[in-house]
Write a structure and sequence with these properties.
345 residues, alpha+beta, N Utilization Substance Protein A, Chain:P, domain 4, OB fold (Dihydrolipoamide Acetyltransferase, E2P), GMP Synthetase, Chain A, domain 3, 3 domains, 35% helix, 30% strand, elongated
Length: 345
C-alpha cells in the first residue's frame, strides 16, 4: 500500500466514476479475506486505510481472557497478564489490537486481494451502467452500428455506455444496417444478470418509440398543451396516434404535423417512410371511432354494446375504411379499444 495505490484509486474515480470510498471499503474486505485465508480462517483483524496519509494498517484483534482459559488461541485471545503488561487499562473481556506488517502477506494473499479488488471494479462498473440505462429507460438514444450478424440479422451497437444488441425482431421490417451507421433506438427494458452484467433491450418497432419522437420534436406535446391519448403501430407499415389539446386555440393534429409537414417529416424519415395517421381524440366514442378510421369518411357509428360497434360508410369508402389486409380497421380497433364491424350503406 503506497502512494501509487491511492493514485490508482483516484484514476478509477476520475475515469470510471467509481467512488474512492467504495474501492477503499472493498480493499479492506479483500485484505481481511487474504489474511484470514493465510491464517486458515482462524483470525480476527481490523483494517485502517488512510487516503490522506496514503497508508494502510492492519491490526490483529484479540480478546482478553483468563490466564488459564482452556480454549486459548493466540490468534484470537490474549491472556490477562500479557494484556496488562501492554497497558494497565486492559480488562477481562476487552480487546487488544496489535499492528501487523502488511509486507508479511504472502503472494497468495496478495493475489486473493487483487482478485477481490478486480471483481469490485467490475461490479461497480456494471452498477453504473445499469444506473445510466435506468435513467434512459423508455427514452430514445443514438447508437453506432458495430457489427451485423449475417446469420440471424442481429445488430451489435455502441450506445456510448456499452455494447448492446438490437435483435432482428426489434428492427423495422426491410431496413438494413452497415457498420458505422448512426441509428436511433428505444430502450424498453434494463435487467441485471449476475454473470453477464446489465442486459438492455433495444427496439425500433415499439409504438412508444414513435410517441417519444413526437414528444421530443413537438413543443406543444413537451409542454403539455397537446396530449397523446393513444397510439398503436404495425412497424414498417403504419402508425395510428390519437391526440387532444388542452387549449382550444391549438389544433393538436396540426401541431404534430407542423408547418408544411416540417415536424412529422423527420420522424417519417427515421421510420423509413412508415405511414402515420394522426387523428383527433374525442371523449365521445362515436366521434373517436369515426376519426380513428381516417382516411375513410364515416357516415355513422352505432354502439351496439360495451366496446362493440358497427360503422356505416359509403360503398366507395368500404375498402379504404378496412384497409389493405384489414390493417386500417385493425389499427382503429386497437386505438379505440372497440371491436369494429364496418358495413357499406
Amino acid at each position: 500500500m503506497n502512494a501509487e495505490f491511492f493514485k490508482a484509486l483516484e484514476i478509477l474515480e476520475a475515469e470510471k466514476g467509481i467512488p474512492k470510498e467504495y474501492m477503499i471499503e472493498k480493499v479492506e474486505v479483500a485484505l481481511i479475506s487474504a489474511y484470514k485465508r493465510e491464517q486458515g480462517g482462524n483470525s480476527n483483524v481490523r483494517i485502517v486505510i488512510d487516503p490522506v496519509k496514503k497508508d494502510v494498517k492492519v491490526y490483529q484483534v484479540r480478546e482478553v481472557v483468563e490466564n488459564d482459559f482452556e480454549e486459548y488461541d493466540e490468534l484470537l485471545h490474549i491472556r490477562l497478564d500479557e494484556a496488562k503488561s501492554l497497558s494497565k487499562r486492559h480488562t477481562l473481556g476487552g480487546v487488544v489490537e496489535t499492528e501487523l506488517k502488511v509486507k508479511n502477506f504472502r503472494r497468495l494473499s496478495a493475489q486473493t486481494a487483487k482478485q477481490v479488488i478486480i471483481q469490485a471494479i467490475r461490479e461497480a462498473e456494471r452498477g453504473m451502467i445499469i444506473k445510466e440505462y435506468e435513467d434512459k429507460r423508455e427514452a430514445i438514444i443514438t447508437a453506432v452500428v458495430q457489427r451485423v450478424d449475417p446469420q440471424n440479422g442481429n445488430v451489435l451497437v455502441d450506445t456510448g455506455t456499452s455494447i448492446a444488441t438490437l435483435l432482428k425482431s426489434e428492427q423495422i421490417p426491410g431496413e438494413n444496417f452497415a457498420v458505422g451507421d448512426h441509428v436511433k433506438v428505444f430502450v424498453t427494458e434494463v435487467s441485471k444478470d449476475s454473470q453477464r452484467g446489465p442486459i438492455v433491450t433495444l427496439s425500433r418497432t415499439h409504438s412508444h418509440m414513435v410517441k417519444r419522437m413526437f414528444e421530443n420534436d413537438v413543443p406543444e406535446i413537451s409542454d403539455g398543451t397537446v396530449v397523446i391519448k393513444a397510439i398503436t403501430r404495425e412497424a414498417g407499415s403504419r402508425v395510428k396516434m390519437a391526440v387532444a389539446s388542452n387549449d382550444e386555440a391549438v389544433d393538436p393534429v396540426g401541431a404534430c404535423i407542423g408547418p408544411h409537414g416540417s415536424r412529422i417529416r423527420g420522424i417519417l424519415s427515421e421510420l423509413r417512410g412508415e405511414k402515420i395517421d394522426i387523428v383527433r381524440y374525442s371523449e365521445k366514442p362515436e366521434e373517436f371511432i369515426a376519426n380513428a378510421l381516417s382516411p375513410a369518411n364515416v357516415k355513422e357509428v352505432v354502439i351496439e354494446s360495451e366496446k362493440v360497434c358497427y360503422v356505416i360508410v359509403d360503398s366507395d369508402q368500404l375498402s379504404l375504411a378496412i384497409g389493405k389486409a384489414g390493417q386500417n380497421a385493425r389499427l382503429a380497433a386497437r386505438l379505440t379499444g372497440f371491436k369494429i364491424d364496418i358495413r357499406a350503406e
